[in-house]
Amino acid sequence: MEPRPLDALDALDLKLLHALQIDGRAPFSRIAEVLGVSDQTVARRVRRLRTTAGLRVLGMTDATVLGGVSWIVRLRCTPDVAEQLANALARRPDTSYIDLVSGGTEVLCAMRPRSQKDRDELLLDRLPRTPRIVSISAHCLLHIFYGGPLSWLNKTQALEPEQEEALRPPPVEPTKTPPQLDETDEALLSVLRQDGRATFAELQTATGQSESVVRRRLERLRSTGVLYFDVQHDSAPLGQSVNAMLWLTVTPSALDAVGRALAEHPEVRFAAATSGQSNIVAAVSSHSTGSLYTYLTERISVLDGVQAVETALTLRQIKQLTYEPGR
């Protein structure tokens, strides 16, 4: 995605982004009450953030709760096909966070296939037959240290602790077995995937159900952890002009400790243990290449058990949570 012109965000903007990350469906009236401003101010600021910071609230499905597995796929290819390949992957509903990295010769793709058949069709059939792909490596996410319902916005501390608590939705109550979804659930998730703040009237139209049924289903999807809400936003307006992926090789005995340490770093947007030669992947954001260098030499270098680090700068983000061609 092309960066937008840098528009400085003030304290209220950051509080609104943080509030929506905590509860993407919180009514503007509730947010306004917690922040001590008017409903109209919240609505006006949100409209502006959609333009200046690419704000979108989206309903995401947690594949692990449903018994699924998430992957990060690295595709090394010739530069002339990288963007075309990235856009083709971005159109798939089971992909997110697609970046062009490594001088435009690598496409990085996060994917959550809904079935083993979908996974094998992509990894074993379609991609290997795609011309000009030099190599493919698929890394299964074994354990997520930071990510999913938690994003970089949760680390901004824009809100006071009591404000966070006032906005926080009821806690997730995991089930012993993966929840089973029916057509109504799937229809709800499909609409919310495009607009996490879709009205109940819109959700009724999509499902053909009454408002009371829609409310109950929505509450169940959230309480079981199947559905969470995430905020999509541009990084530049928040002062994050340099984004990178770190592939860490860590001794097995230190894997959990390093992952937990990374989760606490303010630079880290995502961190997970993975399969493969590098066994931890982290997405980080910095103000500049200089600050990224400082992070690597002063924060990463002192973590016990880290044997090697590969750093890949993001040249362009093709897809965050949803694909917007031409954005």
Notes on the protein architecture:
The strands form two sheets. This protein has an eight-stranded antiparallel β-barrel with strand order 2-4-3-10-7-9-8-5. The protein has eleven helices and ten strands. Helix 2 packs across helix 3 and helix 7 crosses helix 8 (200-207). Helix content is 36%, strand content 25%. Mean pLDDT is 92; it is low at 1-6. It has helices at residues 11-22, 28-35, 39-52, 79-90, 116-126, 161-167, 183-194, 200-207, 211-223, 255-264, 289-300, and strands spanning 56-61, 71-77, 95-101, 106-111, 133-146, 227-232, 242-250, 268-274, 280-286, 306-319. By secondary structure, the chain is α+β, with helices and mostly antiparallel strands.
Please sum up the structure shown.
The protein is α+β, with helices and mostly antiparallel strands and about 325 residues long.
Please describe the structure with a list of short key phrases separated by commas or semicolons.
two-stranded antiparallel ribbon; 10 strands; 8-stranded antiparallel β-barrel; disordered N terminus; 327 residues; alpha+beta; single chain
Q: What proportion of the residues form beta strands (DSSP E)?
A: 25-35%
Overall geometry comes to globular
Radius of gyration: 20 Å
Q: Give the ordered list of helices and strands.
A: HHHEEHEEHEHHHHEEHEEHE
By DSSP (H or I, 4+ residues per run), the number of helices equals 11
Q: What is the mean predicted local confidence, pLDDT?
A: 92
Largest sheet: 8 strands, antiparallel, barrel
Structural class: alpha+beta
Fraction of residues in H or I helices: 25-40%
Q: Identify low-pLDDT runs.
A: 1-6
In order across it, which strands form the biggest sheet?
Answer: 2-4-3-10-7-9-8-5
How widely separated are the two ends? 6 Å
| Beta strands, count | 10
